[in-house]
Design a protein that fits this description.
- The protein has 14 helices and 23 strands.
- With about 525 residues, it is of the alpha+beta class.
- Among the domains are: about 100 residues, Nucleic acid-binding proteins (OB fold (Dihydrolipoamide Acetyltransferase, E2P)); about 130 residues, Beta Barrel (OB fold (Dihydrolipoamide Acetyltransferase, E2P)).
- The chain has a 5-stranded mixed β-barrel with strand order 1-2-3-5-4.
- The C terminus is likely disordered.
- Bound molecules: zinc ion.
- The site of zinc ion (ZN) has 8 residues, from loops.
- The site of zinc ion has 8 residues, from loops.
Protein backbone atom coordinates (compact mmCIF):
# COMPACT_ATOMS: atom_id res chain seq x y z
CA UNK A 1 0.00 0.00 0.00
CA UNK A 2 1.22 3.44 -0.81
CA UNK A 3 2.44 5.59 2.01
CA UNK A 4 4.05 2.80 4.01
CA UNK A 5 7.74 2.17 4.39
CA UNK A 6 8.98 -1.38 4.39
CA UNK A 7 10.62 -2.68 7.53
CA UNK A 8 13.71 -3.66 5.57
CA UNK A 9 14.31 0.00 4.65
CA UNK A 10 14.23 1.42 8.19
CA UNK A 11 17.40 3.24 9.23
CA UNK A 12 18.26 5.62 12.08
CA UNK A 13 18.89 8.77 10.03
CA UNK A 14 15.33 10.05 10.51
CA UNK A 15 12.20 9.41 12.59
CA UNK A 16 9.39 10.17 10.17
CA UNK A 17 8.78 6.61 9.06
CA UNK A 18 5.42 4.91 8.75
CA UNK A 19 5.03 1.14 8.81
CA UNK A 20 2.10 -1.24 8.85
CA UNK A 21 2.96 -4.22 11.00
CA UNK A 22 1.60 -7.15 12.99
CA UNK A 23 2.84 -7.86 16.51
CA UNK A 24 4.27 -11.37 16.36
CA UNK A 25 5.37 -11.45 19.99
CA UNK A 26 4.94 -9.05 22.88
CA UNK A 27 6.22 -9.28 26.43
CA UNK A 28 7.05 -7.04 29.32
CA UNK A 29 10.45 -7.18 30.81
CA UNK A 30 12.17 -5.71 33.79
CA UNK A 31 15.81 -4.81 33.88
CA UNK A 32 17.80 -2.94 36.48
CA UNK A 33 18.96 -0.49 33.85
CA UNK A 34 15.76 0.04 31.90
CA UNK A 35 13.00 -0.62 34.43
CA UNK A 36 9.82 -2.16 33.11
CA UNK A 37 9.59 -1.99 29.32
CA UNK A 38 7.36 -3.43 26.62
CA UNK A 39 9.25 -5.49 24.06
CA UNK A 40 7.82 -6.57 20.71
CA UNK A 41 8.74 -8.33 17.54
CA UNK A 42 6.80 -6.92 14.61
CA UNK A 43 6.50 -8.01 11.00
CA UNK A 44 5.40 -6.28 7.82
CA UNK A 45 3.64 -7.72 4.78
CA UNK A 46 6.98 -8.59 3.17
CA UNK A 47 7.68 -10.88 6.09
CA UNK A 48 10.52 -8.69 7.40
CA UNK A 49 10.77 -8.48 11.18
CA UNK A 50 12.18 -5.87 13.53
CA UNK A 51 12.34 -5.53 17.29
CA UNK A 52 10.50 -2.62 18.95
CA UNK A 53 10.76 -1.28 22.49
CA UNK A 54 8.58 0.97 24.61
CA UNK A 55 10.67 2.59 27.32
CA UNK A 56 9.42 2.66 30.89
CA UNK A 57 8.34 6.31 30.74
CA UNK A 58 6.05 5.51 27.82
CA UNK A 59 4.65 2.16 28.95
CA UNK A 60 1.49 3.72 30.37
CA UNK A 61 0.97 5.74 27.22
CA UNK A 62 1.08 2.78 24.83
CA UNK A 63 0.23 -0.28 26.92
CA UNK A 64 -3.48 -0.36 26.02
CA UNK A 65 -2.81 -0.07 22.29
CA UNK A 66 -0.34 -2.89 22.00
CA UNK A 67 -1.33 -6.52 22.01
CA UNK A 68 0.18 -9.64 20.55
CA UNK A 69 -1.48 -10.53 17.24
CA UNK A 70 -2.72 -7.00 16.57
CA UNK A 71 -2.01 -5.16 13.32
CA UNK A 72 -1.05 -1.50 13.63
CA UNK A 73 0.39 1.43 11.84
CA UNK A 74 3.29 3.09 13.56
CA UNK A 75 4.30 6.58 12.55
CA UNK A 76 7.33 8.54 13.70
CA UNK A 77 9.75 6.51 15.80
CA UNK A 78 13.46 6.32 16.35
CA UNK A 79 15.86 3.55 15.40
CA UNK A 80 18.94 2.30 17.22
CA UNK A 81 21.47 -0.40 16.63
CA UNK A 82 20.27 -3.86 17.57
CA UNK A 83 22.87 -5.35 19.89
CA UNK A 84 23.31 -7.91 22.63
CA UNK A 85 23.12 -11.65 22.95
CA UNK A 86 19.33 -11.99 22.88
CA UNK A 87 18.53 -10.48 19.49
CA UNK A 88 15.06 -11.39 18.28
CA UNK A 89 15.51 -10.51 14.59
CA UNK A 90 18.40 -10.13 12.20
CA UNK A 91 17.49 -6.52 11.45
CA UNK A 92 20.47 -4.22 12.01
CA UNK A 93 18.27 -1.78 13.92
CA UNK A 94 15.47 -1.78 16.41
CA UNK A 95 12.57 0.58 16.88
CA UNK A 96 12.10 2.70 19.96
CA UNK A 97 8.72 4.37 20.31
CA UNK A 98 8.73 8.10 21.06
CA UNK A 99 6.27 10.10 23.12
CA UNK A 100 5.21 11.56 19.76
CA UNK A 101 4.82 8.23 17.98
CA UNK A 102 1.38 7.66 16.56
CA UNK A 103 -0.10 4.17 16.93
CA UNK A 104 -3.27 3.23 15.03
CA UNK A 105 -5.11 -0.05 14.72
CA UNK A 106 -5.76 -1.22 11.18
CA UNK A 107 -7.03 -4.21 9.22
CA UNK A 108 -4.99 -7.39 9.59
CA UNK A 109 -2.13 -8.35 7.32
CA UNK A 110 -2.59 -11.41 5.10
CA UNK A 111 -2.91 -14.55 7.21
CA UNK A 112 0.06 -16.78 7.66
CA UNK A 113 2.43 -13.94 8.43
CA UNK A 114 3.44 -15.18 11.83
CA UNK A 115 7.16 -14.71 11.26
CA UNK A 116 7.87 -18.31 12.22
CA UNK A 117 11.22 -19.30 10.69
CA UNK A 118 12.34 -22.64 12.09
CA UNK A 119 16.03 -23.42 11.86
CA UNK A 120 17.77 -26.45 10.53
CA UNK A 121 19.05 -28.44 13.55
CA UNK A 122 22.36 -29.16 11.86
CA UNK A 123 23.07 -25.42 11.71
CA UNK A 124 22.57 -25.14 15.47
CA UNK A 125 24.81 -28.09 16.22
CA UNK A 126 27.67 -27.27 13.85
CA UNK A 127 27.93 -23.68 15.04
CA UNK A 128 26.87 -21.97 11.81
CA UNK A 129 24.16 -20.07 13.67
CA UNK A 130 25.27 -17.16 15.81
CA UNK A 131 24.05 -17.75 19.40
CA UNK A 132 23.42 -14.02 19.86
CA UNK A 133 20.28 -14.43 17.77
CA UNK A 134 17.22 -16.17 19.17
CA UNK A 135 15.84 -18.93 16.98
CA UNK A 136 12.59 -20.71 16.15
CA UNK A 137 12.51 -24.49 16.41
CA UNK A 138 10.06 -27.12 15.28
CA UNK A 139 10.73 -30.75 16.11
CA UNK A 140 9.32 -34.13 16.96
CA UNK A 141 9.86 -34.87 20.66
CA UNK A 142 11.62 -38.24 20.79
CA UNK A 143 13.10 -38.21 24.25
CA UNK A 144 12.18 -36.52 27.49
CA UNK A 145 13.40 -36.61 31.06
CA UNK A 146 11.14 -36.25 34.04
CA UNK A 147 10.98 -32.83 35.63
CA UNK A 148 13.76 -31.99 38.04
CA UNK A 149 13.56 -29.32 40.69
CA UNK A 150 16.72 -27.27 40.48
CA UNK A 151 17.90 -24.74 42.99
CA UNK A 152 18.61 -21.50 41.16
CA UNK A 153 19.33 -18.24 42.97
CA UNK A 154 17.69 -19.42 46.15
CA UNK A 155 14.55 -20.74 44.48
CA UNK A 156 13.48 -24.09 43.19
CA UNK A 157 12.63 -24.12 39.52
CA UNK A 158 11.50 -26.91 37.23
CA UNK A 159 13.75 -28.18 34.50
CA UNK A 160 13.11 -30.74 31.80
CA UNK A 161 15.47 -32.09 29.15
CA UNK A 162 14.21 -33.10 25.74
CA UNK A 163 15.52 -34.39 22.48
CA UNK A 164 13.87 -33.27 19.27
CA UNK A 165 14.37 -34.53 15.75
CA UNK A 166 13.87 -32.59 12.58
CA UNK A 167 12.91 -33.86 9.13
CA UNK A 168 16.51 -34.79 8.40
CA UNK A 169 16.45 -36.90 11.61
CA UNK A 170 19.06 -34.66 13.21
CA UNK A 171 18.67 -34.68 17.01
CA UNK A 172 18.69 -31.45 18.97
CA UNK A 173 19.02 -31.36 22.79
CA UNK A 174 16.69 -28.89 24.47
CA UNK A 175 16.28 -27.77 28.06
CA UNK A 176 13.12 -26.05 29.22
CA UNK A 177 12.85 -24.15 32.49
CA UNK A 178 10.00 -22.99 34.68
CA UNK A 179 6.37 -23.39 33.72
CA UNK A 180 7.25 -24.72 30.30
CA UNK A 181 8.79 -27.78 31.94
CA UNK A 182 5.52 -28.49 33.71
CA UNK A 183 3.42 -27.82 30.64
CA UNK A 184 5.47 -30.24 28.59
CA UNK A 185 5.27 -32.93 31.26
CA UNK A 186 1.53 -32.58 31.46
CA UNK A 187 1.16 -32.73 27.70
CA UNK A 188 3.28 -35.86 27.62
CA UNK A 189 1.18 -37.50 30.27
CA UNK A 190 -1.91 -36.87 28.20
CA UNK A 191 -0.34 -37.35 24.80
CA UNK A 192 -2.44 -40.29 23.64
CA UNK A 193 -1.32 -41.94 20.46
CA UNK A 194 -0.17 -39.07 18.30
CA UNK A 195 3.33 -37.72 17.97
CA UNK A 196 4.33 -34.67 19.95
CA UNK A 197 5.48 -31.78 17.84
CA UNK A 198 7.10 -28.99 19.80
CA UNK A 199 7.34 -25.41 18.60
CA UNK A 200 9.75 -23.11 20.39
CA UNK A 201 9.79 -19.48 19.36
CA UNK A 202 12.69 -17.22 20.24
CA UNK A 203 14.79 -19.93 21.83
CA UNK A 204 18.37 -19.40 22.93
CA UNK A 205 21.29 -21.40 21.59
CA UNK A 206 23.42 -22.54 24.51
CA UNK A 207 27.09 -23.22 23.96
CA UNK A 208 29.01 -25.30 26.45
CA UNK A 209 32.48 -26.24 25.34
CA UNK A 210 31.83 -27.89 21.98
CA UNK A 211 28.22 -28.80 22.65
CA UNK A 212 25.22 -26.82 21.57
CA UNK A 213 21.65 -27.08 22.75
CA UNK A 214 18.58 -24.86 22.85
CA UNK A 215 16.78 -23.45 25.84
CA UNK A 216 13.96 -21.05 26.58
CA UNK A 217 15.08 -17.49 27.20
CA UNK A 218 13.58 -15.13 29.78
CA UNK A 219 9.97 -14.41 28.99
CA UNK A 220 10.83 -13.89 25.35
CA UNK A 221 10.39 -17.51 24.42
CA UNK A 222 7.15 -19.28 23.76
CA UNK A 223 6.74 -23.05 23.79
CA UNK A 224 3.77 -24.92 22.37
CA UNK A 225 3.01 -28.58 21.84
CA UNK A 226 1.02 -29.61 18.81
CA UNK A 227 -0.13 -26.04 18.20
CA UNK A 228 -2.70 -25.45 15.54
CA UNK A 229 -0.37 -24.13 12.85
CA UNK A 230 -0.05 -24.96 9.18
CA UNK A 231 3.69 -25.42 9.73
CA UNK A 232 3.02 -28.16 12.28
CA UNK A 233 0.69 -30.03 9.95
CA UNK A 234 3.23 -29.83 7.15
CA UNK A 235 6.01 -31.00 9.44
CA UNK A 236 3.98 -33.89 10.75
CA UNK A 237 3.10 -35.00 7.23
CA UNK A 238 6.76 -35.09 6.21
CA UNK A 239 8.04 -37.03 9.21
CA UNK A 240 9.24 -40.52 8.40
CA UNK A 241 6.52 -43.11 8.99
CA UNK A 242 8.55 -45.03 11.56
CA UNK A 243 7.25 -46.16 14.90
CA UNK A 244 9.68 -44.15 16.96
CA UNK A 245 8.37 -44.20 20.52
CA UNK A 246 8.81 -41.37 22.94
CA UNK A 247 11.49 -42.40 25.42
CA UNK A 248 11.30 -41.20 28.99
CA UNK A 249 14.82 -41.09 30.33
CA UNK A 250 16.71 -40.15 33.45
CA UNK A 251 18.16 -36.69 33.27
CA UNK A 252 21.89 -36.33 33.33
CA UNK A 253 22.45 -36.57 37.05
CA UNK A 254 25.01 -33.90 37.64
CA UNK A 255 23.48 -30.71 36.52
CA UNK A 256 25.20 -27.47 37.15
CA UNK A 257 22.94 -24.76 38.47
CA UNK A 258 24.18 -21.72 40.32
CA UNK A 259 27.59 -23.28 40.19
CA UNK A 260 26.57 -26.14 42.48
CA UNK A 261 26.11 -29.53 40.93
CA UNK A 262 23.53 -31.91 42.28
CA UNK A 263 26.41 -34.18 43.12
CA UNK A 264 28.17 -31.51 45.16
CA UNK A 265 24.88 -30.77 46.86
CA UNK A 266 24.64 -34.40 47.92
CA UNK A 267 28.34 -35.06 48.55
CA UNK A 268 29.63 -31.80 49.98
CA UNK A 269 27.04 -29.17 50.85
CA UNK A 270 24.44 -31.22 52.70
CA UNK A 271 25.32 -33.32 55.75
CA UNK A 272 24.89 -37.02 55.51
CA UNK A 273 22.82 -38.75 58.17
CA UNK A 274 21.70 -42.23 58.99
CA UNK A 275 18.02 -42.80 59.59
CA UNK A 276 18.63 -42.90 63.33
CA UNK A 277 20.48 -39.56 63.18
CA UNK A 278 17.70 -38.07 61.08
CA UNK A 279 15.08 -39.12 63.60
CA UNK A 280 17.16 -37.85 66.52
CA UNK A 281 17.86 -34.50 64.90
CA UNK A 282 16.40 -31.57 66.86
CA UNK A 283 16.61 -28.77 64.35
CA UNK A 284 15.21 -27.78 61.00
CA UNK A 285 17.73 -28.83 58.39
CA UNK A 286 18.28 -30.84 55.28
CA UNK A 287 20.29 -34.01 55.15
CA UNK A 288 21.23 -36.80 52.76
CA UNK A 289 20.09 -40.27 53.67
CA UNK A 290 21.11 -43.37 51.80
CA UNK A 291 18.49 -46.00 52.41
CA UNK A 292 16.48 -48.79 50.90
CA UNK A 293 12.79 -48.79 50.14
CA UNK A 294 11.33 -51.63 52.16
CA UNK A 295 7.64 -51.05 51.53
CA UNK A 296 5.05 -48.63 50.21
CA UNK A 297 2.52 -47.66 52.81
CA UNK A 298 -0.64 -48.61 51.00
CA UNK A 299 -3.04 -47.27 53.64
CA UNK A 300 -2.06 -43.81 52.48
CA UNK A 301 -2.94 -44.55 48.87
CA UNK A 302 -0.45 -43.97 46.10
CA UNK A 303 -2.03 -41.29 43.98
CA UNK A 304 -4.41 -38.41 44.29
CA UNK A 305 -6.72 -36.81 41.80
CA UNK A 306 -5.55 -33.40 40.76
CA UNK A 307 -7.13 -30.75 38.65
CA UNK A 308 -5.14 -30.93 35.45
CA UNK A 309 -4.81 -27.22 34.69
CA UNK A 310 -3.99 -26.00 38.20
CA UNK A 311 -2.35 -29.08 39.82
CA UNK A 312 -4.51 -28.79 42.94
CA UNK A 313 -5.97 -31.80 44.66
CA UNK A 314 -9.66 -32.03 43.87
CA UNK A 315 -12.19 -32.75 46.59
CA UNK A 316 -15.59 -34.32 46.89
CA UNK A 317 -18.38 -31.88 47.58
CA UNK A 318 -21.66 -33.02 49.08
CA UNK A 319 -24.78 -32.46 47.01
CA UNK A 320 -26.35 -29.09 47.52
CA UNK A 321 -29.65 -29.57 49.21
CA UNK A 322 -31.37 -26.46 50.48
CA UNK A 323 -32.02 -26.54 54.19
CA UNK A 324 -31.66 -30.28 54.42
CA UNK A 325 -28.41 -32.13 54.85
CA UNK A 326 -29.72 -35.62 54.88
CA UNK A 327 -28.97 -36.49 51.32
CA UNK A 328 -25.76 -38.42 51.84
CA UNK A 329 -25.99 -40.46 48.67
CA UNK A 330 -22.36 -41.06 47.71
CA UNK A 331 -23.24 -41.00 44.04
CA UNK A 332 -24.33 -37.41 44.36
CA UNK A 333 -21.02 -36.12 45.71
CA UNK A 334 -19.23 -34.26 43.00
CA UNK A 335 -15.56 -33.64 42.37
CA UNK A 336 -14.66 -30.02 42.78
CA UNK A 337 -11.52 -27.98 42.22
CA UNK A 338 -11.35 -25.37 44.98
CA UNK A 339 -8.87 -23.29 43.08
CA UNK A 340 -10.64 -23.16 39.72
CA UNK A 341 -13.99 -23.26 41.53
CA UNK A 342 -14.98 -25.84 38.97
CA UNK A 343 -17.42 -28.69 39.48
CA UNK A 344 -16.17 -30.46 36.39
CA UNK A 345 -12.42 -30.27 36.73
CA UNK A 346 -10.28 -32.07 34.17
CA UNK A 347 -8.68 -34.81 36.19
CA UNK A 348 -5.10 -35.99 36.22
CA UNK A 349 -3.88 -38.55 38.75
CA UNK A 350 -0.55 -37.71 40.35
CA UNK A 351 1.71 -39.72 42.58
CA UNK A 352 1.85 -39.26 46.30
CA UNK A 353 3.96 -42.07 47.64
CA UNK A 354 4.58 -42.92 51.26
CA UNK A 355 7.73 -45.01 51.31
CA UNK A 356 8.89 -47.05 54.23
CA UNK A 357 12.68 -46.87 54.16
CA UNK A 358 15.42 -48.47 56.16
CA UNK A 359 19.14 -48.51 56.67
CA UNK A 360 21.30 -50.33 59.17
CA UNK A 361 20.27 -47.92 61.96
CA UNK A 362 16.50 -47.96 61.73
CA UNK A 363 13.49 -47.21 59.58
CA UNK A 364 11.32 -44.23 58.74
CA UNK A 365 8.79 -42.94 56.24
CA UNK A 366 9.32 -40.65 53.30
CA UNK A 367 6.69 -38.68 51.44
CA UNK A 368 7.23 -38.17 47.72
CA UNK A 369 5.12 -36.01 45.47
CA UNK A 370 4.58 -36.46 41.77
CA UNK A 371 7.83 -35.07 40.35
CA UNK A 372 10.03 -37.20 42.56
CA UNK A 373 7.92 -40.31 42.29
CA UNK A 374 8.13 -39.94 38.52
CA UNK A 375 11.89 -39.98 38.85
CA UNK A 376 11.70 -43.39 40.52
CA UNK A 377 8.96 -44.95 38.44
CA UNK A 378 9.87 -43.34 35.10
CA UNK A 379 6.27 -43.63 34.05
CA UNK A 380 3.64 -40.96 34.53
CA UNK A 381 1.00 -41.83 37.10
CA UNK A 382 -1.78 -41.90 34.52
CA UNK A 383 -0.07 -44.78 32.75
CA UNK A 384 -0.47 -46.86 35.87
CA UNK A 385 -3.98 -45.79 36.76
CA UNK A 386 -5.42 -45.60 33.28
CA UNK A 387 -8.11 -43.01 32.71
CA UNK A 388 -9.74 -42.74 36.09
CA UNK A 389 -12.28 -40.57 37.77
CA UNK A 390 -12.15 -41.84 41.29
CA UNK A 391 -10.01 -42.09 44.40
CA UNK A 392 -7.92 -45.13 45.16
CA UNK A 393 -10.43 -47.91 45.73
CA UNK A 394 -8.28 -50.86 46.67
CA UNK A 395 -5.09 -49.51 48.21
CA UNK A 396 -3.54 -52.91 48.71
CA UNK A 397 -3.37 -53.51 44.99
CA UNK A 398 -0.12 -51.86 43.98
CA UNK A 399 0.87 -51.67 40.32
CA UNK A 400 3.92 -53.70 39.46
CA UNK A 401 5.91 -50.58 38.61
CA UNK A 402 5.52 -49.49 42.23
CA UNK A 403 6.15 -52.92 43.69
CA UNK A 404 9.39 -52.94 41.77
CA UNK A 405 10.66 -50.03 43.86
CA UNK A 406 10.84 -52.24 46.90
CA UNK A 407 14.40 -53.26 47.62
CA UNK A 408 15.92 -50.34 45.70
CA UNK A 409 18.53 -48.14 47.36
CA UNK A 410 18.78 -44.45 46.55
CA UNK A 411 20.17 -41.21 47.93
CA UNK A 412 17.43 -39.01 49.34
CA UNK A 413 17.73 -35.36 50.25
CA UNK A 414 15.35 -35.02 53.18
CA UNK A 415 13.91 -31.99 54.91
CA UNK A 416 13.77 -32.29 58.67
CA UNK A 417 10.93 -30.05 59.77
CA UNK A 418 9.78 -28.72 63.11
CA UNK A 419 6.89 -31.16 63.17
CA UNK A 420 9.29 -34.05 62.88
CA UNK A 421 11.18 -33.37 66.10
CA UNK A 422 8.69 -31.31 68.10
CA UNK A 423 5.57 -33.32 67.38
CA UNK A 424 7.22 -36.58 66.45
CA UNK A 425 5.65 -36.80 63.03
CA UNK A 426 7.28 -39.83 61.58
CA UNK A 427 7.04 -38.96 57.90
CA UNK A 428 9.79 -36.89 56.35
CA UNK A 429 9.52 -34.90 53.19
CA UNK A 430 11.94 -35.68 50.38
CA UNK A 431 12.99 -32.92 48.03
CA UNK A 432 15.59 -34.56 45.80
CA UNK A 433 16.68 -38.05 44.86
CA UNK A 434 19.72 -39.49 43.16
CA UNK A 435 19.03 -42.78 41.43
CA UNK A 436 22.23 -43.06 39.43
CA UNK A 437 23.95 -46.25 40.49
CA UNK A 438 27.51 -45.06 39.93
CA UNK A 439 26.98 -42.06 42.15
CA UNK A 440 25.23 -44.07 44.83
CA UNK A 441 28.15 -46.47 44.88
CA UNK A 442 30.61 -43.63 45.09
CA UNK A 443 28.62 -42.16 47.97
CA UNK A 444 28.66 -45.50 49.68
CA UNK A 445 32.41 -45.96 49.32
CA UNK A 446 34.41 -44.67 52.27
CA UNK A 447 36.55 -41.76 51.19
CA UNK A 448 40.02 -42.95 50.31
CA UNK A 449 42.84 -40.87 48.91
CA UNK A 450 42.55 -40.90 45.16
CA UNK A 451 44.81 -39.72 42.42
CA UNK A 452 43.86 -36.12 41.90
CA UNK A 453 44.04 -36.34 38.12
CA UNK A 454 41.30 -38.95 37.97
CA UNK A 455 39.04 -36.82 40.12
CA UNK A 456 39.38 -33.78 37.96
CA UNK A 457 38.73 -35.46 34.67
CA UNK A 458 35.67 -37.15 36.05
CA UNK A 459 34.24 -33.86 37.14
CA UNK A 460 34.52 -32.54 33.65
CA UNK A 461 32.83 -35.48 32.07
CA UNK A 462 29.85 -35.01 34.30
CA UNK A 463 29.31 -31.37 33.50
CA UNK A 464 26.51 -30.66 31.12
CA UNK A 465 25.15 -27.55 29.53
CA UNK A 466 22.97 -26.00 32.13
CA UNK A 467 24.07 -22.65 33.42
CA UNK A 468 20.45 -21.61 33.67
CA UNK A 469 20.39 -17.82 33.79
CA UNK A 470 17.06 -17.97 32.00
CA UNK A 471 15.81 -20.59 34.35
CA UNK A 472 16.27 -18.37 37.33
CA UNK A 473 14.49 -15.54 35.65
CA UNK A 474 11.69 -17.72 34.41
CA UNK A 475 11.10 -18.74 37.94
CA UNK A 476 10.79 -15.22 39.19
CA UNK A 477 8.22 -14.28 36.67
CA UNK A 478 6.28 -17.48 36.82
CA UNK A 479 6.58 -18.33 40.47
CA UNK A 480 2.84 -18.37 40.92
CA UNK A 481 2.56 -21.72 39.24
CA UNK A 482 4.25 -23.38 42.12
CA UNK A 483 1.93 -22.17 44.81
CA UNK A 484 0.14 -24.78 46.82
CA UNK A 485 2.55 -27.63 47.12
CA UNK A 486 5.04 -28.88 47.69
CA UNK A 487 6.72 -25.53 48.21
CA UNK A 488 3.98 -24.50 50.64
CA UNK A 489 5.33 -27.10 52.96
CA UNK A 490 8.45 -25.16 53.70
CA UNK A 491 8.87 -24.47 57.39
CA UNK A 492 9.39 -20.77 56.86
CA UNK A 493 5.87 -20.30 55.59
CA UNK A 494 4.34 -21.99 58.59
CA UNK A 495 6.29 -20.25 61.28
CA UNK A 496 4.22 -19.98 64.40
CA UNK A 497 1.34 -21.85 62.88
CA UNK A 498 -0.23 -24.88 64.47
CA UNK A 499 1.46 -28.17 63.89
CA UNK A 500 -0.14 -30.35 61.30
CA UNK A 501 1.15 -33.41 59.64
CA UNK A 502 2.12 -33.40 56.00
CA UNK A 503 -0.93 -35.29 54.94
CA UNK A 504 -3.36 -32.93 56.65
CA UNK A 505 -1.46 -29.95 55.46
CA UNK A 506 -1.59 -31.24 51.94
CA UNK A 507 -5.34 -31.62 52.13
CA UNK A 508 -5.73 -28.24 53.76
CA UNK A 509 -3.68 -26.58 51.13
CA UNK A 510 -6.17 -27.73 48.60
CA UNK A 511 -8.91 -26.06 50.54
CA UNK A 512 -7.62 -23.09 52.43
CA UNK A 513 -5.28 -21.70 49.84
CA UNK A 514 -8.16 -21.13 47.47
CA UNK A 515 -7.66 -18.05 45.44
CA UNK A 516 -4.46 -17.04 47.12
CA UNK A 517 -1.97 -16.27 44.50
CA UNK A 518 1.64 -15.57 45.28
CA UNK A 519 2.52 -13.85 42.10
CA UNK A 520 6.12 -12.84 42.14
CA UNK A 521 7.14 -9.74 40.34
CA UNK A 522 9.19 -10.05 37.24
CA UNK A 523 12.76 -9.28 37.69
CA UNK A 524 15.39 -9.53 35.13
CA UNK A 525 18.79 -8.10 34.64
CA UNK A 526 19.27 -7.47 31.01
CA UNK A 527 22.79 -8.53 30.44
CA UNK A 528 22.53 -7.97 26.74
CA UNK A 529 22.34 -4.23 27.40
ZN1 LIG B 1 -8.16 -26.40 39.27
Amino acid sequence: MAGFNSVADLKPFKTMWRVKVSIVRLWKQYSAAGGLTIEMVIIDSNGDKIHATVKKELVNQFDHQLEQGKTLTLTNFSLNHSVGSYRTTNHLYKISLLATTRVRSCEALPVGLNGFTPVNFQEVLDGSLNPDFLIDVIGHVVEVSHVEMIHVNGKETQKISLELRDLADVRLPMVLWGNFADQVTNAIQLRGEGRLILVLRFGKIKVWKEDRSVSNAYNVSDVQLNPNMAEVEAFRAMLPADELQLAIVEPKPLTLASGVSVKDDFFIHTPRKTIAEMIECRQVEKCIVMCTISAIETDMGWYYLSCKPCDKKVMYMPPLVAGDHEDDDLQKFKLYCPKCKSYEPKLLPRYKLHLVVLDHTGNSKFLLFDHLALQLVNQPCIELTGPITDEVQDPDVLPLALQNLIGKTYLFKVEIMRENFVYKHDTFKVNKIITNLAIINEFDTPKAPKEPSTQISRGHEYSIVSDAPEGSLMLLEEGSSQEGFPSELTPAKRRGGPAVNLEEEFDQNSVTKTGISTRVKKEKVDKSG
